[in-house]
Amino acid sequence: MRVIAGSAKGTRLKAPGGLKTRPTSSRVKEAFFNIVGQRILDTTFLDLFSGSGAMGIEALSRGSAQAVFIEKDRVCAKIITENLARCRMLDRSVILTRDAHLALSLLSRKKCKFEIVYIDPPYHYPGIFDLVSQLEKDQLLVTGSLVGLERDSRSDEKWSRFSSFSLAQRKKYGKTQLILFEYIT
Q1: What is the pLDDT of residues 130-146, one digit of tens each?
Q2: Residue 19 lies in a domain
Q3: Distance in angstroms (rounded) separating the CA atoms of residues 62 and 31
Q4: Number of domains in the chain
């Protein structure tokens, strides 16, 4: 696994072993960042269910000002730290080793705002709708924020319940479905 573009292009990233994580494929990562394009510049990026930290590191490499990584697994969090050090990005990063919902509440209390969010939970994570709702409820987004979500390609979840989000794109890449929303309120 490597950083695809930007200041850390080509840097090899360490990935957790075993079945703890399902790394985002290069194809999905490339598609997401092609859609985001120049909007990544000088943003604050939120990487939820970070795994190795590859998405947040890619964001930083492409010009994001800061990235927050949320990963409850301590082994994965240690790997994120190692990968950030390898890319010389620790000074622009925050790693929260805790449950996603608790971490979002903490970020809300600190009045954090994110222009771009990437959520890559286990495909059958039961709290996905609550998590997206919490981003809005806890006021973690700004008007125009982009939220990328990775799901199983067979998933037919109905996202119309979120009137504050506009579905910008929904595309399948093999076993993965990339869903992109824009926060419109």
Answers
A1: 999 999 999 999 999 99
A2: no
A3: 14
A4: 1
